[in-house]
Amino acid sequence: MNKSKKFSPEVRERAVRMVQEHRGEYPSLWAAVESIAPKIGCVPQTLLEWVKRAEVDAGQRPWTTTAELQRIKELEREVKELRRANEILRTASAFFAQAELDRKLKS
């Protein structure tokens, strides 16, 4: 399933800021999220995820930050490319080694 980016970063930031500013007026984080989510036009679970992600990025909650996740993704992509390049080099090396053996045997 393809996730669509329905909400702009500005809307997300504003929604998270609203939750953080009005959090003390509610008995729990979930109550604040449930109250504010309809005003933004999203489901409470989505807004809660945005709030949690903002807290992680701000260092208020332990987990992997967005920047770290992006870096991990880049490194995984690089590792995949390097493995593919190594496989190509291994195949080419074997091909040329076999060609060299065939050439020596014919001499």
Fold and architecture overview:
This protein has 107 residues and is mainly α. The protein folds into two domains: 63 residues, Orthogonal Bundle (Arc Repressor Mutant, subunit A); 44 residues. It is built from four helices and no strands. It is rod-shaped, with a radius of gyration of 26 Å. The relative contact order is 0.07. The model has no long low-confidence stretch (mean pLDDT 92).
CATH fold-type name of the largest domain: Arc Repressor Mutant, subunit A
Overall number of structural domains: 2
Structural class comes to: mainly alpha
Count the E strands. 0
Q: Could you name the ranges where pLDDT drops below 50 across 5 or more consecutive residues? A: none
Largest sheet: none
- Identify the quaternary structure here: single chain
The top-level CATH class of the largest domain is Mainly Alpha
CATH architecture of the largest domain: Orthogonal Bundle
